[in-house]
Known about the structure:
The structure is a homodimer. By secondary structure, chain A is an alpha/beta fold. Chain A is 36% helix and 20% strand.
Amino acid sequence: xxxxxxxxxxxxxxxxxxxxxxxxxxxxxxxxxxxxxxxxxxxxxxxxxxxxxxxxxxxxxxxxxxxxxxxxxxxxxxxxxxxxxxxxxxxxxxxxxxxxxxxxxxxxxxxxxxxxxxxxxxxxxxxxxxxxxxxxxxxxxxxxxxxxxxxxxxxxxxxxxxxxxxxxxxxxxxxxxxxxxxxxxxxxxxxxxxxxxxxxxxxxxxxxxxxxxxxxxxxxxxxxxxxxxxxxxxxxxxxxxxxxxxxxxxxxxxxxxxxxxxxxxxxxxxxxxxxxxxxxxxxxxxxxxxxxxxxxxxxxxxxxxxxxxxxxxxxxxxxx
Amino acid sequence: xxxxxxxxxxxxxxxxxxxxxxxxxxxxxxxxxxxxxxxxxxxxxxxxxxxxxxxxxxxxxxxxxxxxxxxxxxxxxxxxxxxxxxxxxxxxxxxxxxxxxxxxxxxxxxxxxxxxxxxxxxxxxxxxxxxxxxxxxxxxxxxxxxxxxxxxxxxxxxxxxxxxxxxxxxxxxxxxxxxxxxxxxxxxxxxxxxxxxxxxxxxxxxxxxxxxxxxxxxxxxxxxxxxxxxxxxxxxxxxxxxxxxxxxxxxxxxxxxxxxxxxxxxxxxxxxxxxxxxxxxxxxxxxxxxxxxxxxxxxxxxxxxxxxxxxxxxxxxxxx
Lengths: 320, 320
């Protein structure tokens, strides 16, 4: 066989990204599709089929494809279902892998989107050759993929790796999606950074800040970053605080599975050292002696738009 | 071969327990030895050899033995060393497995004492046949052994599974051994229960309590339990609070590795429902939907004095 191919699909809250990927991790062609515009899952899959079919044809036809790999919020590796995903338009339990297999006539493997990202890091990214690592996705939410002995941890029911929902600050910030208080996701996500900025602005109403020029609607984590880079003190403190909490969560994770590396991924990582420095300092401060100065914390070197597709497609090689 | 045998040794802060164990998990003979009385590790091993040699002879001689399994605080599976164990008299890095092999001429496998307990539960205890579970030892300290896909999680350096040191209450109680604040161990251990009792007594100096009849020296977690069973309100609140914190830690662990079962073990489990009820309630309250009402939390059914030896000996069969 000259070159085998896979379809990689990343299902997000607003957009699905998909592409044709070869064994070397080259995305031959890619496209995207709105998820929110298709509240009926069958409509969504029909539209996905319409878009993918010509791409598959151009790549040499169905017989060159080993399968479809999918990453999705609350995706279950064992059952191929998406179950009660708070951030998706499709409610309840969706037998996604089965629906895809029926439609495309290709074996479909589905997992949690963060787990797919971890597989991507393991096969194509900075965790290549590393047997024990954790990937944390810092996006709209916080996802995690845990690798132990070279294998993704899925747990007894396929749902393991939800570090975003672990409680880091007892009685802390309310999370609308889950009803919990003080979870990692409620702080160390794009949403969390925005909320921290509002809290800090409210706590010191007279302190000057570039952040005050934006309305509640306008302010994004990206703008908080830009203000911080312009020297805005409150904006800088927002990232210090975010890193402090993220570091506490990383320390707890390290004392659980003792990984060699933690790979951070997603929109918030654009903050660079502004986030990395307080994160590592806080992690180290919360580790007991035997774990100190051992864990490499790095930002993913995969292009963000590609990584989700790559990770999802890598599931196909992984399960072959 | 009629019956193969193993030596199981559990190294504790004050006492080492050891025994001869067969494949069925029957402890044929056992004994114990003070660890604190032998500040030189070579003296300790000599004395252990003196005590074990006649036991090995009575059991049929060295040729019937497959090996020695040891559990020890800060024991490292990869290197066979004990490293910087705060609760042991031997300081620095002790090449324990090598010293034992040299002395006994038997292959020695060493691991963290909590990991050894998990192996014991997996082979002889209530986790038999279960692929994903966590064992939490609630003794003087809090240890943990994590099993994923039927294998103990040791991490990249052999030190994984230190849930006792994860931070559950940011800025909380100081832990003398590690310098951390708010770790699970500082609350959910025998030592922690004692401290909680003192805190609760001090916080409400006029409330009547049976606990007040004991001096600081006298009060133990066992006495707190006995007072609680006699209806003492403060003593009961101590266990409620302990369970609340333990449950929060269990919830975080469940969202990490999604185990089917959590096995609690050690002195504090004598508290029975007094501890179990608030622990499970708090765990469930802190889990996101997808994990709720799925995890069995149970007390170990292994006899406490036997379990440590059994678990350590089981390492021998495990690595054969």
